[in-house]
Input
Amino acid sequence: MKRRDFLKYSTLLAATGGLSGCSILHKHFHDAGCKSCIDPFAKKSKTTSTIITPTQPDEEIVKGLMKDERIKSKYFSQDFTDDIFLSKEKYLFVQKLVVKFRKVQRYVGHGNFNLLSVDNFFLFTDVAPNCEPITPAEKVFMEELFYFDAHKYGFKGDKTSHKLTESISRREVSKVPYSGHFLKKDQSLKLFQKVKNDVGDSLILTSGIRGIAKQFHLFLEKALETKGNLSKASRSLAPPGYSFHYLGDFDVGKKNMGMKNFDQDFAETDEFKRLVDLGYINIRYTQSNTLGVRFEPWHLKV
Output
């Protein structure tokens, strides 16, 4: 879809629909060491349903966890005995929503999707090819996930957006050529331009500002990958409502490195070392962070 048509259609849709009221959450957690899946959004119940049994951490990890909570950041891809899992019912919502997010992103285009509001995501599910409309139950699930306290399943970062209906104004952002991403015009864009000028053309923008719908998509994809383990998903990616990409942070990488820009390989590149030498590195998720998040040397704090 062309950007001009997208803007015109988004304006029309925004004037014709919206979100339903947000539900009040009821928290229910299992005891540490329980292997069964739970529903963190459900009312208290004696019944639970199982998706998978988490693998047991090895002895080194268990001992380390007892001494230092930062062990979860180091072993972010490991299952821990106190991880929080979605129930089978909620996990089915994740599976169905991921399909809808993928189809809407394909329909509006990757760049436009980065700025899409949740309201417009709901509306675009009605018109995207081969996409089923969002259901009331799926809306409730997304509301619950957004307003739920992610600290309860291990993510200790700050909340960056407080309403599911918040949106990004296109007047405040600028598209970065050849990247497919947008940056805020003030601090973010100026910082990236200065960094790129000093480090060189081999440095690229790999992720810019993200709307709440984009963060939902990324987090649900990660939750799908972890088989419903919300704790494990949040160690690799901020839950919706907690991403600093919404406020202006951005990711950088090295040209032609592909997905390796999103692992610790980037910290071994000349580009990263140059960023350190020039004093640009102000990493939000450091190697020794206690936020329950993996080390992100590519994520620049604005």
In short: Strands lie at 173-176, 181-184, 203-207, 250-254, 299-300. The chain has one domain: 3-28+84-164+171-300.
